[in-house]
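Service request form, structural biology core

Requester: graduate student, group of Dr. S.
Request type: structure prediction, single chain
Budget code: on file
Notes: please return the result as structure tokens.

Sequence provided:
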Amino acid sequence: ISVRSSEEEQLDIKDIQKTDQYKKGISHMSDDKMEDAIRDFDLALRLDPSYVDAWIKKGYAHFHLDEFTVALSCYDKALEIDINNAEAWNLKGLAFYKLKNYDKAIQACENAIDFDPNDGMAWYNLACYLVLSKNVGDGLEALKRSIEIDISFARKAVRDRDFEYARAEEGFRRIVEVVVLEAIRQGYNY
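Core staff response, request fulfilled:
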């Protein structure tokens, strides 16, 4: 028979409480109640200041409120705790993109890819940022890699205005052809 100390029981209760607060925050985000979500994530972080997922989601809630510098500081907190967190790096890139700092967005996405080379969204975002910074060739290579991971990125790219500079390129036209052929194969006639 093992006897649990009251300190161990307190830790369990704190873990349950922080997880409950985090889940409330996720629920508020899905209801588009970002301020409530931020409050929930703050409460979870009070219970555990090293709760990486809460830092990331708090940052994302601030991102949705167009508070990009606050979002960046949340992602930085998450990365102080876990430098290898690809999601935090990718979202940091997205915040830099919104601030039109494409060089930092590119670097953040490259870091995300270093830690998770199979993250299709990071490759897709990198492609967008490279094309926006007029590095179309490398952007199309990153886009191809994202499509290799998940074909749905091809359809997304066809409609994405971030690829305006790339539309005339042969590589991009081939991606459009693949999307059209796949649509026809699936029975769409437009």
